[in-house]
Amino acid sequence: MPTAAANIGVVGLAVMGSNLARNLASREGNTVAVLNRSRAKTDELVSLHPEAGFVPTFSYEEFAASLQKPRTAIIMVKAGLGTDAVIDELVRVFEPGDIIVDGGNAYFPDTIRREQAVRETGINFVGAGISGGEEGALLGPSIMPGGSDESWVTLGPILESIAAVAEGEPCVTHVGHGGAGHFVKMVHNGIEYADMQLIAEAYDLIRRGTGKSPAEIADIFAEWNTGELESYLIEITAEVLRQIDAETGQPLVDVIVDQAGAKGTGAWTVQTALALGVPVSGIAEATFARSLSSHPEQRAVAAHLPGPEGDFVVDDADAFIEDVRLALYASKIVAYSQGFDEIRAGAVEYGWTIDLGAVSKIWRAGCIIRAQFLNRIAEAYAGEPDLPALLTAPYFAEALSRGQASWRRVVIAAAQAGIPAPAFSSSLSYYDGIRADRLPAALVQGQRDFFGAHTYRRIDKDGTFHTLWSGDRTEIPAVDTH
Ligand code: 6PG
Known about the structure:
The chain is α/β, with parallel strands linked by helices. It contains 20 helices and eleven strands. Bound molecules: 6-phosphogluconic acid.
């Protein structure tokens, strides 16, 4: 048995796990024990990276014996049943006070369940969202841990040592208890879906409206990346659009099949939002846009359906591009505002205390949605921690007001040209809905009361009312059902 030389262990050494282990090992004061289901991966990692000083282990018993107490292990396996199997093994060899961290993209109800079950044994369980892909895991991800205060005492400094840094601050915070970390990571991914879809719509509109090539549009995105839209996703979009396929000489984007994949976190964000009653319409449209793209059989039979006559060519390409930029920024504000609404509602529902300002700060670097814009969100919550809707904060309200005319022109142009822009248009509808004095929801209430006696409230007096909808409707009084 090895001596307890390591202060942290990693189980699961596929790309994310081995990169995270290397990141941990590269930070002063960390000694990292590693364990993988197949011995070959462990041997390979240890021999490829002698500088890391890994402590290789080949059984759960050896792994536990190699760790200082409280033992701390990060599980980096594909989310699902494999995670439960690894947790069971760790619970078998760990002791009360030890800490098991799940660093995968787990569905937060699973994390809530696992945390409760593991807590019974006296062992701490932490569901930690980790964002930033392979490179982030290696160089500095954004980390969203949940779990107990006790576990944070040991885990906090270790995670702070490996996280990305934004303006001198590590991109990790103790998000909240139980499943809070994975909940916040889930919403991060939902926002990621919306952001990506909005960028894709912007590209499509510019390409079809101005005839510019992908490489020319790459230059536009690179330019946008120097202003208020500056973000990792805008930056990589320019790179993707510039890429030429070596085999055909075509822009790679034209060679890639136009069916977007998804591993489920966007759908979870939408399902959860539906259950919580939070309208995350931008995220939902982005998720559905991926689904629509991935039904080639339906798209093939629908391809003959008519669209508008004539070609879509804008008169003033530069003005149109600037409109699209402003529409993108406004829609992005809506998507983030909706995502933060969902986190707030989730915190209330599950009894977590989540500091929305702290969440926006740890998304400033390391993660996929990192952006200059997150500083503005942090400022908004610093100014008003209980801000009821992010888009009403002065900075965002000004940006929306500045962008709204462009936003409307872009949505109109898309509709007239027959170009799908579901995320742009749903964001604009959300904006118009949330700011409306009066909504036709009153009519919906009337309909509900008509067919199901579901009752309604009145604008002029308290109480709940039901109308007897028959006969001479003008004469029938509303009945207070109280
Ligand atoms: C991250 C990413 C990461 C992953 C997504 C992709 O934060 O590092 O979000 O978690 O790339 O799961 O999800 P889809 O395959 O569903 O696009």
